[in-house]
Amino acid sequence: MRVPLSWLREFVDVPADATPEDVHAALVRVGLEEEDIHSFEVTGPVVVGQVISAEPEPQSNGKTINWCQVDVGEAEPRGIVCGAHNFAPGDKVVVSLPGAVLPGPFPISARKTYGHVSDGMIASARELGLGDEHSGILRLAELGLDPEPGTDAIALLGLDDVAVEVNVTPDRGYAFSVRGIAREYSNSTGATFRDPLLDPALSAAADERRAATGFAVTISDDAPVRGRQGCTVFTAAVVRGVDPSVPTPPWMVSRLTLAGIRSISLIVDISNYVMLELGQPSHAYDLAKISGGLVVRRARAGETLVTLDGKTRNLDPEDLVVADQSVAVGLAGVMGGLDSEISDSTTDILVEAAIWEPVTISRSVRRHKLPSEAAKRYERGVDPAASAAAVARVITLVQQLAGGTIDLAGFYTDSSTPPEPIELPDGFAESIMGVAYSADEVTDSLTAIGATVEPASDGWLVTPPTWRPDLTDRWTLVEEVARIVGYDRIPAILPVAPPGRGLSRSQRLRRIAAQALAAGGATEVLSYPFVAASFNDLFGSPVAGGVAAIRLANPLDPDAAWLRTSLIPGLIGVARRNLSRGLTDLALFEVGTVFRPEPGVEYGSDALPRGGALPAEAELAELRASIPPQPWSIGALFVGDAVRKQPGQPAVASGLADALGAAHQIATTLSADLEVVTGEHHALHPGRTAQLRVAGQPVGFAGELLPALASDWDLPRVTAILELDLDAVIALAATDVSATPIAGFPAATQDVSLVVSETVRAGEVKALIVEGAGELLEHAALVDEYRGPGIPDGSKSLTFALRFRASDRTLTAAEATEAKNAAVALAAARVGATARE
User: Fold this and answer.
1) What CATH number does the domain containing 309 carry?
2) How far apart are the first and last CA of the chain?
3) pTM here?
4) For residue 502, is it left (φ>0), alpha (ψ between -120 and 50) or beta?
5) Nearest Cα to 399, choosing from 277, 249, 241?
6) In degrees, to the nearest 5, what angle opens at C-alpha 283 toward C-alphas 282 and 284?
7) CA–centroid distance for 321 within its chain
8) What's 587's domain CATH number?
9) 196: helix, coil or strand?
10) Which residues form a coiled coil (predicted)?
11) For the chain, how many structural domains are there in total?
12) How many angstroms separate the most distant Cα atoms in the chain?
């Protein structure tokens, strides 16, 4: 919201020497956010001049210039070259003399041009920053001005004004007006505030509008949104015999310009001016283009409206419109219709101001992609008490500036609900804010914002003002007390954490797992949890087929309308984006929750507890039951080279080994004994897929994407992925972990080669060796697998490197051999293994 200081001073006593920075500081103290300072950026000398003569001089380039003699209030007239032709001798214009600087910045100096020395410049409205019109110079007679030559044009046109801009939060729609900002300045500084609605003349005129009858308006809302009527207040008035071609006065143009509103025409400018002043939008129609009276209704199916921007809008049955007896003439609260627009031939105008239901307006704005200044205010709530006053102000300004007669006929209705009193117990503000507020501070603060405060048995009954729909309970009243008294009263004290608290075991281990992968060179990413159903079907289960998933009621992207059941889709999206930018070697991981609803269970609840009350156990149980299980997972993706090519080192491509290495790294960090067995997954390459287990229970998978899928997603042919159920791994991990002491005795190493059937898994054979060798076996690793000559068909040879050690003595070769033979015997008994010589 931009507020010219000259306008602000009409409603509140801003000191004459107050700078824009001072005003900003005052408004920041009551919770408004400082944005910017705006001015016309015009410095003098800029004066009124009267054209004495204008001699046209054709030029060789085909252009005709005027060599003018202009009286600027000095002893001698100044010679000025001007290329415009919309003026004549005798006209009074605005002259920028040498030394002046116009917006741009555009410094003015005497310069030789077209064979003359032009001693200044006759300015257009655009050159002065007063609008977009630049086809001709600004003629003061057209503005109804007749000043003496030499008069300071900067002050005359209001170019010396300055505006402060503040950001208004969505809950404080009343501050989208000079009236609201003036009240806030008064609350901050204690300066006297003059509410324009209480001005005797405007108040009397508003009462006349409320009593006016005779103009037919029907409120017919047979499809209210959320059970709330779309229109609760409607005021209409008629002014006859106006002259809409009269130019907007300079003081209004300058204020509108500083406020960020483009001057269009007098009637439109008046409507915008009053909207900025009082916060109540209004609209003016050409009465001759209205058939009969007005009807406020919902749009009919298939109905269209050409809005003032010239675009045809296909209306929705939920849209609220203002219509005459035949067609819609305006999209309520958003924009008027082109067919009823005021033109230079208009003589009678109809002015209306209404209170529209915010949700209806907000939906219409988004449906038609049609934001407007009026809609911005209606979406946040407009003071229902200002409707009649706004219409009275508009028609008064119209009569003063465009002539005409205010018709006695009009219309007014008000079905709005007055604000309900709110109980505010004594001491409640202190219990919430931690600040001791006196009774006077509480009542004075609430009175300052416009509330009515009455004593009650244990505190006060507070009735919010009509312009504050955001004040709905005692907590919002406390916020106002804290804001008005001053946020500086709230101590900046960090709370002391209770002893014995901190991260839970799961939180701590999740962080450790992420730190382990990051320390290993992987990059942590964060992806959106919204995916397509096909991604959930691919990665939500190792088995092909649909999986239970939660669909969003109002998705941002209809192609990603489901909550993820796996982290892999997000990692694939991140990898594709980085590959498209030339980053070909990637090791990515993400730690996050996935959503895995139980089949057949309906989720969702409307029972949300109040923010200021501790929910009961029953409420918490209902809330927990309303959301699906959200286990924590950790996923990783590897593409490109794990080791880049360098002198003496060939490139090493990423693959399944990297995914398995990351899985082992996570398991080791969490003190979990990870088992890797051959697995199957319908999205992964057969023979390049591993099932990951802890304590015999499946906890995830690792593998390489099917080449066809990798190609569809523009990924390299070899793309390795990993996903672990982090909650399951943590639950199965050892809770008591002790460090293994460094051995003081030497180890004995031996190798063993076992011939087994091709159907026997190497991991299974290794587990049997570990079991059979007993406590002396310190380490076992598969070092070779062989198929070929010397090995029976359908068999394979597995070679394991074994390391034996005793904690209390040096092992003999015989002891190590005995342990090895025991392992071979167990493998022979269980899987038919034979030792290979």
Assistant:
1) 3.50.40.10
2) 90
3) 0.68
4) left
5) 241
6) 135
7) 28
8) 3.30.930.10
9) helix
10) none
11) 6
12) 126
Looking at the structure, tell me whether residues 536 and 672 fall in a common domain: yes
Does residue 497 lie in a domain region?
A: no
Chosen domain end from 673, 705, 732 = 732
Q: What is the DSSP string of 308-371?
A: TTS-EEE--TT-EEEE-SSSEEEETTTEEBGGG---TT---EEEEEEEE-HHHHHHHHHHHT--
- Check: CB of residue 65 under 8 Å from CB of residue 56: yes
Looking at the fold, whether 659 and 719 belong to one and the same domain comes out as yes
Do 260 and 222 lie in one domain? The reply is yes
480 is in an annotated binding site: yes
In sign, the C-alpha dihedral spanning 287, 291, 293, 297 is negative
Place of tokens 């004075």: 444
CB-based contact 275:281 (threshold 8 Å): yes
Q: Kindly state the tokens that stand for 737.
A: 């972990």
| Residue 671, token pair as written in the block | 């003190």
Is residue 613 domain-resident? no
- Beta-carbon count within 10 A of 484 CB: 21
To 5 degrees, how large is the angle CA 469–CA 474–CA 477? 60
The amino acid at 214: G
Looking at the structure, tell me whether residues 29 and 88 fall in a common domain: no
Query: How much is the pLDDT for 133?
Result: 63
Beta-bridge partner residues of 65: 57
H or E stretch at 755: strand 748-757
Cα distance between residue 720 and residue 635, in whole Å: 11
Give the whole-angstrom CA distance, residue 123 versus residue 93: 8
- 479 assigned binding-site residue: yes
CA–CA separation, 555 vs 561, rounded Å? 5
Distinct helix (H) and strand (E) counts, the chain: 23, 41
Q: What CA–CA distances, in Å, run from 532 to 4, 706, 710, 727? A: 51, 19, 17, 25
Query: Does the residue 617 lie in any domain?
Result: no
Statement to judge: residues 393 and 482 lie in one domain: no
Task: Residue 56: give its domain's CATH number.
Answer: 2.40.50.140
Helix (H, G, I), strand (E, B) or coil at 82: strand
Cα–Cα distance for residue pair 283/236, rounded to 1 Å: 10
Divide the 837 residues of the chain into consecutive groups of 10 and give the mean pLDDT of each group.
Answer: 95 95 95 92 91 93 92 94 92 94 91 92 89 76 89 91 93 94 95 95 95 94 75 96 91 92 93 96 95 92 93 93 93 94 94 94 93 94 95 96 94 94 94 92 95 93 95 94 92 78 88 96 96 93 86 89 95 96 96 92 75 79 88 97 91 94 95 91 93 94 96 95 96 83 89 94 91 94 92 94 93 93 95 90
φ and ψ of 3, to 5 deg: -130, 110
User: How high is the pLDDT of residue 604?
Assistant: 79
The answer to the question of residue 593 being in a domain is yes
Q: Is 272 helix (H, G, I), strand (E, B) or coil?
A: helix
Q: Are residues 408 and 431 in the same domain?
A: no
Q: How many C-beta atoms surround the C-beta of residue 218 within 10 A?
A: 15
Query: Domain check: are 133 and 235 in the same one?
Result: no
Q: How far apart are CA 293 and CA 356, in angstroms?
A: 19
Q: Which helix (H) or strand (E) holds 101?
A: strand 101-102
Residue closest to 397 by CA, chosen among 277, 284, 280, 271: 271
Q: Is 161 annotated as a binding residue?
A: no
Strands (E), 533-604: 562-563, 586-593
Instruction: Identify the domain containing residue 786 by its residue range.
Output: 748-835
**Whole-angstrom Cα distance, residue 151 to residue 155?**
9
Structure-token match 């895995």, residue found:
596
Q: What was the pLDDT predicted at 554?
A: 86
- How far is 410 from 413, CA to CA, in rounded Å? 11
Contact 396, 278 (CB under 8 A): no
- Please tell me the distance from the alpha carbon of residue 231 to that of residue 90, in angstroms, as a whole number: 53
Residue 102 structure tokens: 């116009």
- Boundary-marking domain end, from 447, 464, 489: 489
**Distance separating alpha carbons of residues 475 and 563, to the nearest angstrom:** 34
In a shared domain, residues 336 and 223: yes
